């Protein structure tokens, strides 16, 4: 009957207030019986006292003295079902008159929130207790809501301890379902406590080596779960300037050894997949352990630093908006002469030489950096890592990597469909830059020296372009990989299309190649043992046992660092008046009379 189904599955439907038990009503088992009686008591706002509860019977009565309500439910002989044997009277008491209810236990909260938790794992305890109050008319404490969420999370995803125990078998499945992928882990100590994990899917490795720009960003995000730790990532950039996560790591702490290991695994992953490793540009925060790890494992790579850290240090040192504007102008200058001019302007405001000695320009200025940053001055992967850490910090480690794999799978499918829809030579972001360069090139006079060398003359300056070497004296072509307006003028003058002179990594063909390989799903854990190789003499990873890390979160609510996305971007330029030289308004809006 429908009424019986409502009692049997109380976590999916709120029992209506007119719901009552009936003699002969059946339940599949004693646990379902207990849950149904508890849900009914909460829905009808009566508190019950359990008189007897075991595997063969369940007896409960109203907790109010003098109220005759009582129920006796017993197991049916020969079958697992339970049936209502006796039911005495209606409630004569006034029931519960406040919002607190004895039957609203942590277990009941966990069952009540399970459905919503599946849809929104980020639901907060405050939202849970508010929902329970609105839907059930019951008040639970913050701690009950928090523990209920923890218990429900364990029921949905397994416990955190189960995640470490299943990690070896999961890594084995990654290798079987996605051949060519790398999934390696390490435990330490007598209990084989988890220390670190490195995962890179073959589709990501192939996409980076065959389609992405030779640029890597390395960063980390702290995990705030029970066992703390950090989420590490190395990400490339695809043709259309989107982040392309290449490898992930989970470590028990952000130590020098763990950073060295992660970057070493990254080098080995790329080294065994290509004989012609491209010359890389690697961007990261200016952390000593990261700098040392990159130097040791990628000695030929050009290592640049995130401008967010450098600019924040400059801002805190001088606390002068005009100087900060000049600093950013110096960052974007393309030649040493232009950079020196900006430094001279800064020196007229304040002495910045001591700071420049601590932060040499080759660390942050475009004019002196030898690698190709492709316009990336801050780390784009930071925001992605921050969001992943928020979404995954309460998940077991296996579910964390699965969540990341699902996200990568969605990105691959969406971007491949997008790439297949393009009919242009270059991706849209590069096409826009080329169109702007072509439009700007019309004001230049072109003087051809020979077949490949040109002199581009304007009212401001003269630039030299070599189309064969893909060189312009303004250096924009070499730094950004896309022909500048001077190069576009030279190419158009001899009938060439500037689009064919951009770096290959901006082409639609490379964009399609980046996402051409699929990331295959991992089977349910119930099928893992059946897929074992069964080879004698080979240690099966599934037989290796990992225990949780020895580092645990201290008592109390963890401090959540709120990352403001606007802090990752270049600050807005502060206007300076050319008439009164005050900040905050332009000369046009100046109140000072001529």
Give the DSSP E fraction (strand runs of 2 or more residues): 15-25%
Low-confidence stretches: 1-18, 530-539, 562-571
Global mean pLDDT: 83
Shape: elongated
The biggest sheet amounts to: 7 strands, mixed
Based on secondary structure, the structural category is alpha+beta
Tell how many strands the DSSP assignment holds: 16
In short:
Residues 454-495 form the SWIM-type domain. With 594 residues, the chain is α+β, with helices and mostly antiparallel strands. Helices cover 39% and strands 15% of the residues.
Account of the 3D structure:
Keywords: Metal-binding, Zinc, Zinc-finger. This is SWIM-type domain-containing protein. It holds the Pfam family DBD_Tnp_Mut. By secondary structure, the chain is α+β, with helices and mostly antiparallel strands. Helices cover 39% and strands 15% of the residues. The chain has 19 helices and 16 strands. The N and C termini lie far apart (90 Å). The model is unreliable at 1-18, 530-539 and 562-571 (pLDDT under 50).
List the helices and strands and how they pair.
Elements: H1 2-8, E1 26-27, H2 30-44, E2 48-53, E3 57-62, E4 70-75, E5 82-88, H3 106-119, H4 125-136, H5 142-157, H6 160-177, E6 182-188, E7 193-200, H7 202-211, E8 215-222, E9 230-237, E10 243-251, H8 256-271, E11 281-284, H9 288-297, E12 302-305, H10 307-318, H11 321-332, H12 336-349, H13 353-358, H14 381-392, H15 397-421, H16 428-441, E13 445-448, E14 453-457, E15 462-466, E16 471-472, H17 476-480, H18 485-493, H19 508-514
Parallel strand pairs: 8-11, 11-12
Antiparallel strand pairs: 1-5, 2-3, 3-4, 4-5, 6-7, 7-10, 8-9, 9-10, 13-14, 14-15, 15-16
Helix pairs in contact: 3-5, 4-5, 7-19, 8-9, 10-11, 11-12, 15-19, 16-18
GO molecular function, one term: zinc ion binding
Organism: Urochloa decumbens
Protein name: SWIM-type domain-containing protein
């Amino acid at each position: 009957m429908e009424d019986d189904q409502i009692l049997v599955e109380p976590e999916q439907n709120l029992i209506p207030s007119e719901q009552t038990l009936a003699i002969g009503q059946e339940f599949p088992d004693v646990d379902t019986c207990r849950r149904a009686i508890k849900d009914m008591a909460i829905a009808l706002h009566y508190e019950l006292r359990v008189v007897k509860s075991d595997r063969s019977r369940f007896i409960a009565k109203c907790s109010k003295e003098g109220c005759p309500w009582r129920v006796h439910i017993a197991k049916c002989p020969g079958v697992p079902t339970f049936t209502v044997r006796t039911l005495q009277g209606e409630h004569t008491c006034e029931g519960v008159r406040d919002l607190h209810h004895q039957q609203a236990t942590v277990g009941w909260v966990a069952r009540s929130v399970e459905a919503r938790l599946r849809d929104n794992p980020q639901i907060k305890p405050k939202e849970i207790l508010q929902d329970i109050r609105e839907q059930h008319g019951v008040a639970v404490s913050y701690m009950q809501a928090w523990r209920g969420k923890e218990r429900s999370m364990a029921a949905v995803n397994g416990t955190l301890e189960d995640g470490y125990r299943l990690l070896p078998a999961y890594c084995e499945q990654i290798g079987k379902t996605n051949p060519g992928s790398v999934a390696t882990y390490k435990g330490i100590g007598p209990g084989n406590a988890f220390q670190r994990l490195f995962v890179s899917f073959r589709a990501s490795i192939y996409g980076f080596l065959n389609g992405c720009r030779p640029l890597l960003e390395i960063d980390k995000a702290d995990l705030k779960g029970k066992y703390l730790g950090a989420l590490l990532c190395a990400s490339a950039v695809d043709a259309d300037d989107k982040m392309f996560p290449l490898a992930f790591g989970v470590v028990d702490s952000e130590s020098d050894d763990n950073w060295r290991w992660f970057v070493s695994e990254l080098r080995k992953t790329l080294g065994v997949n290509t004989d012609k490793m491209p010359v890389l540009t690697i961007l990261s925060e200016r952390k000593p352990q990261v700098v040392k790890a990159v130097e040791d494992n990628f000695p030929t790579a050009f290592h640049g630093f995130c401008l967010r850290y450098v600019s924040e240090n400059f801002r805190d040192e001088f606390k002068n908006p005009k100087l900060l504007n000049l600093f950013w102008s110096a960052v974007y200058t393309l030649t040493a002469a232009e950079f020196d001019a900006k430094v001279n302007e800064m020196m007229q405001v304040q002495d910045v030489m001591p700071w420049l000695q601590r932060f040499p320009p080759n660390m942050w200025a475009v004019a002196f950096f030898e690698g190709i940053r492709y316009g990336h001055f801050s780390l784009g992967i930071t925001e992605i890592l921050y969001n992943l850490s928020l979404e995954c910090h309460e998940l077991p480690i296996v579910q964390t990597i699965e969540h990341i794999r699902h996200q990568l799978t969605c990105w691959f499918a969406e971007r491949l469909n997008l790439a297949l829809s393009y009919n242009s030579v270059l991706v849209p972001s590069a096409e826009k830059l080329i169109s702007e360069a072509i439009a700007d090139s019309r004001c230049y006079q072109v003087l051809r020296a020979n077949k490949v060398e040109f002199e581009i003359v304007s009212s401001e300056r003269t630039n030299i372009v070599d189309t064969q070497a893909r060189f312009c004296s303004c250096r924009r072509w070499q730094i950004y990989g896309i022909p500048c307006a001077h190069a576009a003028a030279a190419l158009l003058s001899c009938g060439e299309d500037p689009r064919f002179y951009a770096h290959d990594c901006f082409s639609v063909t490379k964009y399609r190649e980046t996402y051409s390989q699929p990331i295959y799903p991992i089977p349910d854990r119930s099928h893992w043992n059946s897929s074992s190789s069964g080879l004698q003499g080979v240690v099966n990873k599934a037989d290796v046992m990992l225990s949780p890390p020895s580092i645990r979160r201290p008592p109390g609510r963890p401090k959540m660092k709120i990352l403001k996305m606007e802090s990752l971007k270049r600050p807005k330029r502060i206007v300076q008046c050319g008439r009164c030289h005050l900040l905050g308004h332009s000369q046009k809006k100046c109140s000072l009379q001529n």
